[in-house]
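thought: fold this chain, then report.
action: predict
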Amino acid sequence: MIISEKEKRTTAYHEIGHVLVALKIPESDPVHKVTIIPRGRALGVTTYLPVDEKHTYSKEYLEATITYALGGRAAEKVVFNNFTTGAGNDIEKATNIARKMVCEWGMSEKLGPLAYGKNEEELFLGREITKHQDYSEKTAQDIDEEVRAIVTKGRNRAEKILIDNIDELHRLSEELLEREILDAEEISKILKGEELPPAKRNGMHNNSDTKEEEVPEHVKKLMEKKNIKSPEQPNTDKGNDSN
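observation:
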């Protein structure tokens, strides 16, 4: 997939928005890696590596997940004052979590510990799971308001984090543009102000000079032995020694 430099730059800031917001919220899952190498329909991907296996989720953890899910969209607004369709899946994820918090997990102070909407199986439609609205229109409006409030709170929190750490946002995004992939260790070094080794592309260093120490010692010895010929042995592999 070929993308323009403008789109690549937007993607880099979008992904670093996820990364930086997650790093600044203690309840978030640790960032594992971020890339702007297109994969399938995704122009960039940020992956997280949970510290341990979770069987239940706290309200704080869910709010953190919503916040860093919206970090990409927040970065687009803070840096470019614009939005792209790249945040579509993030918005859907944040909305689904917020709705479950309100309707299934009783995490809304206004609506209380009640379950809204019964799951019903359509037996003649491939056992499709559907939601049955067993509440009034007024309650439906309250649910929508609570979901909107949770998502809006996460959005505002993400934007504030990025504004407060705008220098780190720019620094990480520029490094990601240069390298296309950053892992957790590299991200940590950049935030500490440490220099990273020269960026690699397709296994090669950006600088054209090849340092002698980059050749392993045992390979050097083999090369030296190959180049030293005995007087009585003719040099028959001259062409191979030129490399």
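thought: worth noting. Residues 49 and 93 are 18 Å apart (CA to CA).
final: tokens above.
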